[in-house]
Structure formats: C-alpha cells, structure tokens
Amino acid sequence: MGPIVASDFGAPELEKEPSIVAMTDIDTNHYTETLPSARTIPKLSRSFYFRVRRLLKELRSQEAKDRSKGRDFDKALALARDIANIRIKKIASLGASSDQTTEQASNLTAEERALYDRIKQMIDEWKRDILGIEAAE
After folding, report:
1. Of 14, 43, 89, 119, which has fewest CB within 10 angstroms of its CB?
2. Number of neighbouring beta carbons within 10 Å of residue 51
3. What CATH topology corresponds to 6-131?
C-alpha cells in the first residue's frame, strides 16, 4: 500500500494548503502530545501528515547541498515518528473503548480516522467471534 494522501479522502483541496509544515509546528505538536496530562487526542490540522511528508521530502532533497538540512531531516523525522506513535496508541485505545468517543474522534485527521475505523471494526469483529454476541454491548 502506498502513502495515504489527502485526495484519497475526498479532500484534494488540502493539497493546495501550504505544502510544508514548519519545524516549529512539529515541535509544538510533539510537546502537546507528550504532556503527562495529554490522555485525549489533541486536534491536528487536517493536512498535518501531508505537510510533514512534504517537509521531509524537501529536507531530504536539500541534504546533499547543506549538511544542516540532514540534521533537520533527522530531527523532523524523529519528532514526526514520535507524534505518530503516540497518536497510534491513543487511537488504538479509543478504538477498543466502548465509551462514547465522538468528541475525541472529531480531533482525528482523515488518515487517523481511517485507522480508527479499521481498528474499531477489527475489535468489534474479534469480540463478536470470541463472545458470540454483538460487540456494541
């Protein structure tokens, strides 16, 4: 499966937003995600992952010309991976929860919503299989 892009979710207009997220945005989002009290899923811009991919691609292409871009690439990649990993854990927990999750689910990006829906479906099917009843109970 290739990378998920905004147009995959019926949102080609997102690809017309500023194409690159600033390093300060990644730093800020990382800080917000790693706060000890951050059990909820903070809202990201709808095009966050798309713009991060663009930033990484741009930094990678500039790396040969400027060594500092290589360090910037490494930092941006590490922060983006950390943000994704933290959010994946929260999304998995949200998908496994039987609580009302509308408010938290509304903070998901399109890519995260697709992951949440798949996790939720898999968990519901698994519960149905092992318990022999509907998972929503």
Report:
1. 89
2. 23
3. Methane Monooxygenase Hydroxylase; Chain G, domain 1 (1.20.58)
Q: What single letter denotes the amino acid at residue 106?
A: S
What does the alpha-carbon distance between residue 116 and residue 110 come to, in Å, rounded to a whole number?
Answer: 10
Please give the C-alpha separations between residue 3 and each of 7, 54, 58, 125, 131, in angstroms, as whole numbers: 11, 12, 16, 26, 36
pLDDT in tens, 1-57: 444 444 444 445 444 555 567 888 898 898 888 887 767 888 888 899 999 999 999
* Residues 50, 54, 56: CA angle, nearest 5 degrees: 115
Indicate the SS3 state at residue 112. Answer: helix
**CA within 13 Å, CB half, 9:** 20
Q: Is 10 left (phi over 0), alpha (psi -120 to 50) or beta?
A: left
Identify the sign of the CA torsion 117, 104, 30, 82.
Answer: negative
- Domain borders along the chain are 6-131
- What does the DSSP 8-state code read for residue 16? G
Would you say how long the chain is, in residues?
A: 137
How far apart are the C-alpha atoms of 123 and 114, rounded to whole Å?
A: 14
